[in-house]
Structures are given as C-alpha cells and as structure tokens.
Design a protein that fits this description.
alpha+beta, Beta-lactamase, single chain, globular, 13 helices
Length: about 350
C-alpha cells in the first residue's frame, strides 16, 4: 500500500495529462475531511470512501441526481442481511456514494474484467490484434470447471482467435478461457502489476481459476474494494476504451454479457438504459457461506448521463437467488433516482 500511495503521487501529473479523468480521481483527495471513517463530497471522485448526503448537496447548491441518493438509502437495503456487502456508485464521473467502499472483497470472475484490460495492454505492446489466433494445448482445458469453451470444442488441441477467448471470459465467464489468457500474457502477476501501475492499487490479481478451484480460500486473494472497482470502470468507459479498438471491443463484449441477468440488469430490462458489466460468483467457504455474488457495471441513460455501480456480496448466508435479488434492488434504487432526476 505504501508503494501505491507513492505511485499515485509520482504519476498523478503525467497520468492527468494522458487521462484527464485520472486527475478527477486523485486531485481532490487531500481537500476532504475524514469523519468517523466516512467522507462527504460533491463534484469529485477520489481514492477514499465517499458518502454523498442530501444536506451537503443542498448546501453546495446545483442539485444533482445524488440529492436523492445517499449512503443511508443504499444501507437500508442491506443492513439486516446476514452477509458482508459493499456498494460504490459514481455518477457522471463525479458524485460518489459508497457503503463499505474501502473494504476488501473477493472479486471472483469480476477479475476477468481487469484481466481483459491486461490482455489488451499486452496485445498493444506486442502488435497483436484480437483477430489473431493462439494455440491451445489439451492440458490447458480442464474438466472440472465451468467452461462453455470445453463444451463446444472438447479437450483437444485448438487454435482460436483472442477475440473469441475474450468473448468466453467476459460474456460467459469461462474459467478455462481465463487461465488460457493468463498463460498468454504471462500470468496473474502481469495483470496485477498493470492495475497497480495505472494507480488502482486496491485491486489484487494473484491466482488463476485453477488455483482457486484447488483451494477455495485463494478466492479471497483476488480482491478489490467496491470504490476501486468503480474507479476502474469509470476510467475504462470514459477514457481507456476510446484510445484503442481493442479496449472498445472489450466494452462491446461486456455490453453483451450473458451472465447475471437477475442482478444489475434486472430493473433495466424494460428501459432504454445500456448496461456494460461483469459478474462474479463463488462457491461455499469452509464455514458454509457463499464466498461471493458480485456484479460491476456502467450504465448509460438515454439522456447521456451515466454511472458506475459495484455491488460485492461476500461470506453470505443468503441463497444465491436472494443475493441476486439484493443486487437487483440496489440497482433499482440507483436507477430510479437518476431516472427521476433526468425526467
């Protein structure tokens, strides 16, 4: 963590010139007060835990959508639940509301999103197009794991375009395709280093899918805070995806994600909102609790407004469908607030 805080200080001036949004994320960090581990802010996004409140917004003037969205509104949906839940919402790249925003949560397959960014970064550096194919050996296709790739092709030598592998990881959360991509770029440490080099120091990518399946406690080693993942989503959708066709393709694939339609997507299905997202789901830990049910997304409204939303549910005594319903409820609260403000 000390290295990351130093890194933020060193790269802020350079990163701000390259990616203007990065400056919004770090530039106002020292101007806000920490009171009982809760931050209150308007018009900024930052590295801390920010909780926007109606009273502060009213005092600040210029009403925004967050005048009807507060940490209390989100907390009221989850306080009575037997689970560890973190939420982060960043609206229009500025106004931020969180609950347990700086706590660490296991990402599970959500980490296939930052992994995809690492794949794109590797391809750009090495002149590789997503249309290019790579060789896959039979030993890389494991039997006892979720893998639509294996179901389609079987266990045999293959040559598949990178774009297809990414469609398996981002749209269907394929575990074999994930580890094949890790092999391609040089392992989880490459993706982890990229996140930290870009200033996202609370995102940790340490283990492959195979490693997590061999020891479920390793799932906790691939972690993020809700706020950090929301920051990454903002940075990706507002800036990075516009810099190269490979990043744009990742956004397209995530917009067509087929998993978790009962989570963030549920209240949006009959609207004109566009959701770009990635889900994650875990097994039971040794205590019999579900390690994670997650969804992270970026929603674009018809009027052009947008927001990132991250919901991490960990160590849950809830049934999977109940956890999905909690995420859908939080998604509905945020969407209704912004839709009413826009209307």
């Amino acid at each position: 963590m000390a290295f990351c805080m130093l890194l933020v200080g060193v790269i802020t001036s350079q990163a701000t010139s390259l990616f203007p949004f990065f400056g919004d994320l770090v530039g106002n960090y020292d101007t806000l007060k920490d009171s009982d581990n809760q931050f209150v802010a308007k018009g900024v996004s930052m590295l801390g835990d920010i909780e926007a409140t109606e009273s502060f917004m009213a005092a600040a003037g210029s009403p925004t959508a967050t005048t009807c969205l507060s940490a209390d509104a989100l907390r009221s949906c989850i306080d009575s639940l037997d689970a560890r839940i973190g939420v982060a919402v960043i609206i229009d790249g500025r106004d931020t509301v969180t609950v347990a925003g700086r706590d660490d949560f296991p990402m599970l397959s959500v980490y296939k999103f930052p992994q995809a960014l690492a794949v794109a970064d590797y391809c750009i550096a090495n002149g590789v197009a997503f249309e290019d194919s790579i060789d896959i050996q039979p030993a890389q296709i494991k039997e006892n794991t979720w893998s639509p790739l294996r179901e389609k092709y079987g266990i045999k030598a293959l040559r598949i375009p990178l774009e297809e592998l990414l469609s398996y990881t981002l749209q269907q959360s394929d575990n074999n395709a994930c580890d094949i991509l890790f092999d391609f770029i040089g392992g989880p440490a490459v993706a982890d280093s990229l996140m930290h080099a870009r200033g996202f120091c609370d995102i940790h990518i340490r283990d492959t899918e195979e490693a997590m399946h061999s020891d479920v406690m390793r799932c906790y080693r691939n972690s993020s805070t809700p706020l950090e993942m929301a920051r990454l989503m903002e940075y990706f959708m507002r800036d990075l995806r516009l810099t190269d066709a490979r990043y744009a393709k990742i956004a397209t694939l995530m917009t067509d994600c087929r998993t978790g339609l009962d989570r963030l997507a549920a209240p949006l299905q009959r609207t004109s909102a566009v959701l770009t997202h990635k889900t994650g789901t875990g097994d039971l830990n040794p205590s019999g609790r579900q390690i994670a049910v997650n969804d992270v997304g970026y929603i674009t409204l018809p009027d052009g407004r947008s927001y990132s939303i991250v919901v991490f549910i960990a160590d849950s005594a809830l049934k999977p469908m109940e956890s999905a319903s909690v995420i859908a409820t939080l998604s509905r609260v945020v969407y209704n607030c912004l839709a009413s403000a826009s209307g």
